[in-house]
Amino acid sequence: MTVKAPAALPAFYNPANAAKWDYVPDQQKLFKEASDWKRSQGIAPAASDRFSVHLLLIDAQKDFCFPGGSLYVAGRSGTGAIADSRRIAEFMYRELAHITNVTTTMDTHFAYQIFFPSFWVDRNDQPLGAFREITADEVGRGEVRPSTSVAKWLCGGNYTWLVKQALHYCTELEKAGKYKLYLWPPHCLLGSDGHALVGVLHEARMLHAFARGAQSWVEVKGGNALTENYSVLRPEVLTRHDGAPLAQRNSLFLKTLLSSDAVVIAGQASSHCVKSSIDDLLGEIMAQDPALARKVYILTDCMSAVTVPDGKGGFAADFTPQADAAFQRFADAGMKLVKSTDPMESWPGIEL
Q1: Cα(336)–Cα(352) distance, rounded to whole angstroms?
Q2: Which end of the chain has less Cβ packing within 10 Å, N or C?
């Protein structure tokens, strides 16, 4: 196969903007830039693609992608998500003519969520801190419990029901074997600056939309106060302790992804929301047809793992090994681990 030289990057693109929290593209100007770029590069409408490529960009939001964010995904390098954003943007520009659709997921939370410290108190009614686990055993013994302040608006004031639900949630998480309940600092609060997409990635997705006549799709996740929603395809727990449904799978979006000829995945964090989304995608694939795994491409250089510095030059928590183990498992199932810097047409199974 003869691989073409990579496409040029647009003149307006500045890689330094990947590190700027305050960078906001001029969307009206971008519309004109897209028209000029489409004409100069001979880019056809996405509707004409005979091989459909769906780029799934997971949680590329400011709170995850900048040191000033409340849950910066630094990786082991310290510059993880910043460098990832630059590589993702450049990949999107180089491969814009081949990417049919782009969907960005948006982690979307409110002040009280079961995985935020604000939801919990200890047995002395003192608030809990972030970056700690809560186990079913602790809830069962009353060492930690939901704050009484949330019961009124969350479950009609039935605090006994809420305590049972909290115990059920922790128990279900532990039974699943993926995670224990982990308390994160408040992040991606709807309406906050940290909820917004990284400027250079919003810029790239809008250029794609305007140049290719494709909608700027978004999948919102995470608003249910009683369950984490790492994966875009389903919440962590689907049932309540009383047997009623708590949440549901995102079956429509799953169908959208699997109807594409190729699904390319990037974003944050490789150890959590990316990993969970791919895990759920793989689970559905194995239930339908294991051969479908071959259409999934994971941009390993466009995602980083969660790390928590210990202030002494090391890490209080480092989820890199979990991400690496997941990558190997995904590859063993038939998914492709690829680099953004390699032309898409050189990837195995791509028929552009």
Answers
A1: 17
A2: N
Q: Is 278 exposed, middle or buried (0-12, 13-18, 19+ CB in 10 A)?
A: buried
Give the DSSP letter string of 122-143.
ETTSPBPPSSEEE-HHHHHHTS
> Which class does domain 24-41+50-110+187-346 fall in?
alpha beta
Tokens of 53: 């490529």
Q: Reading across the β-sheet that carries 216-221, which strands appear in turn?
A: 216-221, 101-107, 53-58, 262-267, 296-299, 336-338
**Helix-then-strand count for the chain, H and E:** 10, 12
User: Which portions of the chain are predicted below pLDDT 50?
Assistant: 1-3
H/E element, 338: strand 336-338
Tokens of 266: 């990037």
pLDDT at 4: 54
Closest among 178, 155, 175, 161 to 282, alpha carbons compared: 178
Contact 53, 100 (CB under 8 A): yes
If you search the block for the tokens 């063993």, which residue do you land on? 332
Q: Which SS3 state, helix, strand or coil, does residue 193 take?
A: helix
User: Which residues neighbour 210 within 8 Å (Cβ) at sequence distance 6 or greater?
Assistant: 30, 31, 34, 35, 38
DSSP-based three-state secondary structure for 37: helix
- Annotated domain spans of the chain: 24-41+50-110+187-346, 117-183
**Of 209, 259, 261, nearest in space to 96 by CA:** 209
pLDDT of residue 2: 44
Nearest alpha carbon to residue 175 among 118, 136, 148: 136
Residue 234 near residue 246, CB atoms below 8 Å: no
Nearest to 218 by CA among 178, 186, 190: 190
pLDDT of residue 8: 81
> 68 in helix, strand or coil?
coil
Cα separation, 336 vs 298, in Å, equals 6
